[in-house]
Design brief:
Blueprint lengths: L5 H15 L4 H30 L2 H4 L12 H9 L22 H11 L16
Organism: Cryobacterium psychrotolerans
Membrane topology: Single-pass membrane protein
Subcellular location: Membrane
């Protein structure tokens, strides 16, 4: 329970007796008890509402399987990387052929090299880039 041992709870109780005093301690202990009961009732109410909304499927859920403390990132990655059936290996082929001289890229490049910019000429605009 939150790492609280009996010794720690006893120490907290002794400190509370000294800080609160014997006349106020019963009042605060009763408030703590009421708060614990309210929290328990709220949790049970939420559980009951969930059971009502989900119907019979609620009882079929394996809550331990959904516990985030059971997730081990190393195991998840290992399972994702290791497959039972090896997939067909895909290799990429790279073509070392000369570029097509009629490609639009080379045509634009030649046009830019040949075009002289004059102060009265409009700025170059690439319609495919926008």
């Amino acid at each position: 329970m939150f790492g609280l041992t009996f010794e720690k709870l006893l120490l907290i109780g002794i400190i509370a007796v000294f800080l609160l005093g014997p006349e106020r301690l019963p009042h605060y202990a009763a408030q703590l008890g009421r708060l614990a009961r309210q929290l328990r009732d709220m949790a049970n109410g939420a559980k009951d509402r969930m059971r009502d909304e989900m119907g019979p499927e609620f009882d079929d859920l394996d809550w331990k399987k959904l516990d985030p403390r059971q997730y081990d990132p190393r195991r998840i990655i290992r399972e994702a990387l290791v497959d039972d059936a090896p997939e067909k290996e895909v290799t990429a082929t790279v073509s070392r052929a000369a570029p097509n001289p009629d490609s639009a890229y080379l045509q634009r490049k030649r046009a830019r090299e040949n075009a002289a910019l004059t102060p009265s000429a409009p700025a170059p605009f690439d319609t495919e880039a926008t």
